[in-house]
Amino acid sequence: MEILGKGKRLAVSAAMADMDEKTARKYRGLGKLPSEIKVDYTWKTRKDPFAEVWEEVKGKLKINHGLEAKTLFEDLQRRYPGNFADGQLRTLQRRVKGWRALEGSPKEVFFPQVHRPGELCQSDFTGMKTLGVTILGKPFDHLVYHFVLTYSNWETGTICFSESFESLSEGLQNALWELGGVPGRHRTDRLSAAVQKPNNPEEFTQRYRALLSHYGLQGHKTQPESPNENGDVEQRHYRLKKALEQSLMLRGSCDFSSRQNYAVFLTKLFTQLNAGRRDRFKEEVGVLRRLPRMRLDSCKRLRVRVGPSSTIRVNHNVYSVDSRLIRENIEVRVYGEHLEVWYAQQCIEKIPRLRGEGKHRIQYRHIIDWLVRKPGAFENYRYREELFPTHRFRMAYDWLKGRHPSRSAKEYLGILHLAARQNEASVDYALRTLIANEQPISIGAVEAIMGSLEQIPSPTQVSIAEVDLGAYDALLSIREEVRPCYQIS
Fold first, then answer.
1. Do 168 and 176 meet the contact criterion of CB atoms below 8 Å apart?
2. What is the rounded average pLDDT of the residues 272-291?
3. 3-class DSSP state for residue 300?
4. Whose CA is closest to 153, among 229, 239, 263?
5. Rounded CA gap, 467 and 478, in Å?
6. Exposure on the CB side of residue 475, measured as CA atoms within 13 A
7. Kind of pairing, strands 255-256 and 317-320?
8. What are the CA-CA distances from residue 485 to residues 194, 440, 474, 479 (Å)?
9. What is the pLDDT of residues 187-245, one digit of tens each?
10. Which site from 93, 109, 191, 383 is most exposed, i.e. has the minimal number of CB atoms within 10 Å?
11. Is 49 exposed, middle or buried (0-12, 13-18, 19+ CB in 10 A)?
12. Residue 483 confidence (pLDDT) above 70
């Protein structure tokens, strides 16, 4: 058509376009290009094998949109034996896919958001158990409080063990002080530690509102069953775990010598991840608001009364305290990982915090002074198992009970009292010596061994000689030399 427009004859134009002259005359007469007269393919080339059953298939899809084509196909094969071959599954899958696109229920729409520097931060907890991190060979089951700026994707995290308010407060404050400023808004999912129940007129808990107010943050929460509203931090969860998994592979081990070493490793990983976000991060830092003069305490303060059993109940768990505090009102400061016991404006003890509910932590030193005076209470004491500091103490009690049942409790409590007054490690060594040498166990025998000690010997080093595989080779060679003989009678 271009050549014809230049005044060339039809035959010359057709030859130059590598086209038959009759074909060129047809297109010239129509005045259209070949692509303009192409007929769309809309007809079926073969009979639809599902035409007779399609209405009932469609009815089931309308009732339950989650039905898969394979499930429907297997149902048809059962109800109409011999009518449908296995190779026709793909045909039904295409039909179902087409129906869903044209007549099915609308799919969820995700709306891209515009992020502005310093405007929004998101945070959430994520479990790290699947990565298999261990501390000195023991599984380290933990969470990470994960904080992300949505504009630059700058991120950081804090190790924790529960989705408590204390963990939320500590993690958020750690992130803000590391960041060096405060964004405009903070969004979380519907954490029970921060968000009130739906029937409550208040949106957030009192403690969370106080935390937001201290930093001048505007709080936001996601809608029920809408994790995509916290999509930035949810996506960073996946990428963080992937990066950590790769870093552990590169390191060659998931085992760490201490929790502190693991925390340093995690901090270095965040630094590496943030290295490629410096330009956008600088934009955010320039518009962040100033931090307050000081941090807010990441703890919950409770006033509790010590019961007659020298125990307190905190967050549905039981803890023992010194018996001198019985019937006294004390203040307990609950942190993410420990409790502080305060009396007369002094912190008199720190206790590791129990995770979960319905648990107990009893320290024998708190109650042993009175328990030795009431040895009859030991046998049925509710928390008796907590009064065996090591397995050797338990073995000693079992030995005493088997040989001196009438005075076993009194004798054992005397040994336990000795551990409380002097040195638990020395008592444990004395019991180990008596048990190993099969000697009678008593308070006097323990004291005699302790009196002869200048210092506690170091643990016995166990060495295993290298196995000589040559012995197995020799056995195999002997087996080859010895041939079975059969006598035929």
1. no
2. 93
3. strand
4. 239
5. 19
6. 5
7. unpaired
8. 83, 59, 22, 13
9. 998 888 888 887 888 888 999 999 999 999 999 988 877 766 788 899 999 999 999 99
10. 109
11. middle
12. no
* Tokens found for residue 450: 């302790």
Q: Which two three-digit tokens encode residue 371?
A: 């328990």
State yes or no: pLDDT of 253 exceeds 90.
yes
Backbone angles phi, psi at 140, to 5 degrees: -110, 85
- Say how far apart CA 48 and CA 51 lie, in whole Å: 5
Please name the residues in contact with 221: beta carbons below 8 A apart, sequence gap of 6 or more: 187, 188, 189, 190, 194, 195, 203, 204
Residue 176 · residue 209 · CB < 8 Å: no
Hey, what's the torsion of the CAs at 462, 464, 465, 471, to 10 degrees?
150
The DSSP element (H or E) to which 28 belongs, if any, is helix 21-30
Classified as helix, coil or strand, 160 is: strand
CA distance 284 to 281: 5
Neighbouring-strand partners of residue 120? 185
Query: Which residue pairs, CB below 8 angstroms and at least 24 apart, start in 304-308?
Result: 304/329, 304/330, 304/332, 305/329, 305/330, 306/330
- Which of helix, strand or coil describes residue 329? strand
Q: Quick check: 321 and 306 in contact, CB under 8 A?
A: yes
In Å, the largest CA–CA distance within the chain is 127
Determine phi and psi for 348, rounding to 5 degrees: -95, -15
Three-state secondary-structure class, residue 452 = coil
pLDDT for the residue 301: 92
Q: Which residues contact 481 (CB under 8 A, 6 or more apart)?
A: none
Helix (H) or strand (E) holding 157: strand 155-160
Tell me the average pLDDT of the chain: 88
